[in-house]
Write a structure and sequence with these properties.
2 copies of one chain form a homodimer.
Chain A lengths: L10 H14 L12 H8 L3 H13 L3 E4 L3 E4 L14 E3 L7 E11 L2 H7 L6 E11 L2 E11 L8 H5 L5 H9 L5 E10 L2 H7 L6 E11 L3 E10 L4 E7 L1
Antiparallel strand pairs in A: 1-2, 3-10, 4-5, 5-6, 6-9, 7-8, 8-9
Helix pairs in contact in A: 1-3, 2-3
Chain A binds a DNA duplex (19 and 19 nucleotides) through helix 3.
Chain lengths: 241, 241
Amino acid sequence: MPSRKPRSAPLYEQIRQLIVAALAAGEWKPGESLPSEAALAERFGASAGTVRRALDELTAEHLVERRQGSGTFVSTHAAPRQPFRFLRLVPDDDAQAFTRELLSCRRLRATAPIALALGLRPAEPVIEVRRLLHRRERPVVLDELWLPEKNFEGLTAEVIESHAGALYALFEARFGVHMVRAQEQLRAVAAPRQAAVLLRVPEGQPLLSVERLAFTYGDRPVELRRGLYLTDHDHYRNDLN
Amino acid sequence: MPSRKPRSAPLYEQIRQLIVAALAAGEWKPGESLPSEAALAERFGASAGTVRRALDELTAEHLVERRQGSGTFVSTHAAPRQPFRFLRLVPDDDAQAFTRELLSCRRLRATAPIALALGLRPAEPVIEVRRLLHRRERPVVLDELWLPEKNFEGLTAEVIESHAGALYALFEARFGVHMVRAQEQLRAVAAPRQAAVLLRVPEGQPLLSVERLAFTYGDRPVELRRGLYLTDHDHYRNDLN
DNA sequence: CAGTGGTCTAGACCACCAT
DNA sequence: TGGTGGTCTAGACCACTGC
């Protein structure tokens, strides 16, 4: 028998990690197809069944999508299967259709909490984006985002305004940053004066505060977001399994 | 070749559904072990691999738990793997430990929205439970529950008070109703007077409103719940995948 | 029709648990 | 030590896609 394996993680898990590393390195871009199961089995020296198991895990994590008859593809926010995977706010009645209004896009230095969340050195430069989401001419969401400048060099108001799709699709297409998962912390808060003005509600109005930390491949945090949701005619939907 | 199969769902899916039906029928109770893979394969006339696939799906849905070396067991809220699977409110700082205070337990007739949510006829009898959750002598959650009386006959304040564990463990042990999954709708609301008094906050204080519809085997709704969470020192945590 | 993923089987071997 | 689930393989056949 050949060399001793440390017998740490199962083979399908090692292969999964190797594929994630290749995705992080950009070997296959979002929307592109991966090699076939047989080709990957050859590459990793494993059986097709073991590679399939690794790909099934990646499918469950939404890192790839499989289409019978055509292949395995890197997930993309450009033409997503699930259009609003990361926006859980849904109208009480009909379908959702938001319009976006960009408020500002500036370069500034990370405050201590922002640097901590994003894993940056204190005062490292970040880009702050502020915007409003409207439905039927009424503001519903006030969003503030902070992004490490080193990952989003060249992000300006013009770049955002000239892009039609979702922000995460822009990040992916223009900066090669694909968002994989996120953690959110929800609270009920009283609307501060400035937010109240923008959302056209009285100061002190109860709002749903949603703090999100979003991660790219390899669990690297690359976006901190703070949303204030007006929940008079919308709600945040969550499924517990 | 023998009879034509309609070729509807794959075999592992059919087997999954048969096992769910057996769970719903109470063939194996929460905490008990299922037959081994080999025995189930024999029973359903399939290979071990196919039965394994069905059991893997049920594991992902938290309907069963598998323990290497000892067997496959029906999930239970009595000794859960994940202690707070359905309570997403976590303290900002340290660990969670709630004490419960029962406010009331009464029998009444379902209002229209309650009947609709639970799939009952109008004015069918339901049991209403109201309670407070405290941490460090401070009220944090005001909970109201509505349960179909036909499924929870004999549920009284005394029954609740005499039970040490979680409510869902009580429901399972005493009424044979195991909660499988739930949908929640979150909003920020202003504390109504009565809730404000109970939670010891000013009237109008922003609170996180959590409406939950919980389902048992076969997606049958059996509990409607309305929680008002004080989120000054706690937050609702959610992971987006 | 060739190539892809999806299903199903059979069997070997390993890791873990109970006794 | 026997029984359980966990991993890995090899191969057959099916269903779907795209040329």
